[in-house]
Amino acid sequence: MNKSKRFLNNPRNIKQEVTNGFVLANKNRLHKIYDGNVLVANNLAKDKVGLLIGGGMGAEPHFMGYVGKNMADCAVVGNFYAAPSPNIILQATRAVDRKKGVQYLYNNYAGDNLSFDMAAELAEEEGIQTKTVRISDNIGSIPINRKSDRGGIAGGILIVKVAGGAANSVDNLDDLHRITKKANDNTRSLITAAKSGTYLDSGELMFYLPENEIEIGIGFQGEPGLLRTKMLPADEIVDYMLEQILDDLPLVENDEVVLLINNMGATTFIELLIINNRINQIHTEKKIFIFDTLIGNYYSSQEMSGFSISLMKLDDELKKFYNLTASSFNFMKGDL
Q1: C-alpha atoms less than 13 angstroms from C-alpha of 201 in its C-beta half-sphere
Q2: What is the mean pLDDT of residues 251-279?
């Protein structure tokens, strides 16, 4: 099997070169500390509650792309598909603490859970209060009664947006935690893949899918999904995906949602717009209002052919914080 061609230097230097390149492109938004493993927003307010996000490098642009105005205050960067160490997270916590505490927000994976929990204990010993929300939007093959076991994928970007707005508006960590948790509880996502992504350093496939098959509900690195089937028309795939999402996130007439259609890496914009067309047809039939639509590369796996659909159910509070203007490398939002 041929490996993918890569524009790389020494694979051992990828993380350093990527973070350096990212910071150089974002000098007006953030700076790096702790050997580039911690990226901190510039000009943090002196009296705000902190919002810290992070995880292993691998997804593009992952958490680095969501630090900025009314977004996260800081991102911690681990190695490829590996959680950042507790010490790195502690350094980041110190950097963003403004004596009002720090909200941790990260994907619900075992390694991240362990590292962030240990960092929280170390921060507490230093008198820094932290609270945690683990992003669990991926409905995949884990049922709703085990939602706390679900992992995080592209819908987490919507949660970061709400939490980032709230962190600049509320006065205490308890309120930020409550709002962040509600955003997570109201968000669902599902991936469909037609071709595996590849590991950046080696070019090897992450998983195997036969040429004429797709898998709906597959995990980011190929964890088993809900359905493997022959390739289907786009509308039939969307119908199945939305049926699963709407069964998991009950919506009634006149509810409002934010829709995110995420390119998993190698899907064309034309395909994503066809997918959006069908989603809107279904929502119109069900009289569910799409308040805002995001389409693009928000949480991608190198060269994976596929897409994910995320819905966040809004109430007045979530809408207020989602709707604040925002500026980060991979998420820009003006007034609606």
Answers
A1: 13
A2: 97
Mean per-residue pLDDT, 305-321:
98
Name the H helices within the chain. 14-24, 86-96, 110-125, 156-167, 173-185, 234-248, 269-286, 316-322
Contacts with 29 (C-beta within 8 Å, 6 or more apart), sequence order = 41, 42, 67, 68, 69, 327, 328, 329
- Percent share of the chain, pLDDT over 90: 82
Residues 6+ apart with CB under 8 A from 261: 272, 275, 276, 279, 293, 294, 295, 296, 307, 308, 309, 310
Q: Where are the domains of the chain?
A: 11-141+151-160, 187-333
121-178 per-position pLDDT tens digit: 999 999 999 999 999 999 998 988 998 999 999 999 999 999 999 999 999 999 999 9
Tokens of 146: 């085990």
Q: Which two structure tokens, joined as six digits, stand for 329?
A: 């490398």
- 182: number of CA atoms within 13 Å, CB side? 18
Q: Are 158 and 312 in contact (CB under 8 A)?
A: yes
* Structure token digits, residue 204: 């090897």
- Cα separation, 251 vs 242, whole angstroms: 12
CATH number of 11-141+151-160: 3.40.50.10440
Length of the chain: 336
Q: Reply yes or no: is the peptide bond before residue 61 cis, omega within 30 of 0.
A: yes
According to CATH, the topology of domain 187-333 is Hypothetical Protein Tm841; Chain: A;domain 3 (3.30.1180)
Categorize the per-residue pLDDT at 2 as very low, low, confident or very high, splitting at 50, 70 and 90: low
The rounded mean pLDDT for the chain is 94
